[in-house]
Design a protein that fits this description.
The chain is built from no helices and 11 strands. By secondary structure, it is mainly beta. The radius of gyration is 15 Å and the shape is elongated.
Length: 123
């Protein structure tokens, strides 16, 4: 599975951005689409994720402000970010968490990453 993230940029506090993550390859094997972020000097953290069925989870820091969705027909996940704060500034990464069986029946689990997209919240 290959991932292409887009939609980052510079936005003022209180503004909004929508990130997209397009998947290609063995897309039917993707169970959960995940959004992470990594701020300078900090560890990468899970922001939100969404299952194939649309069930979403959020980190407490973004609950009520971010919405994660997934369009299975387009093989794309989205992260709608509103009421952005300076502390949301980070490189955002999408990841595909899934699994499949090889031809000889061996299970394979993976988490594949897309390239990050910079989100900067500043005046």
């Amino acid at each position: 599975v290959q991932l292409q993230a887009s939609g980052g940029g510079l936005v003022r506090p209180g503004g909004s951005l929508r990130l997209s993550c397009a998947a290609s390859g063995r897309v039917s094997s993707i169970d959960v689409m995940e959004w992470y972020r990594q701020a300078p000097g900090k560890e990468r953290e899970l922001v939100a994720d969404v299952t194939r069925g649309g069930s979403a989870k959020y980190d407490d820091s973004v609950k009520g402000r971010f919405t994660v969705t997934r369009d299975n027909a387009k093989n794309t996940a989205y992260l709608q970010m509103t009421s952005l704060k300076p502390e949301d500034t980070a490189v955002y990464y999408c990841a595909a968490n899934g699994g499949y069986y090889t031809d000889d029946g061996a299970p394979v689990r993976y988490r594949n990453w897309g390239r990050g997209t910079q989100v900067t919240v500043s005046y």
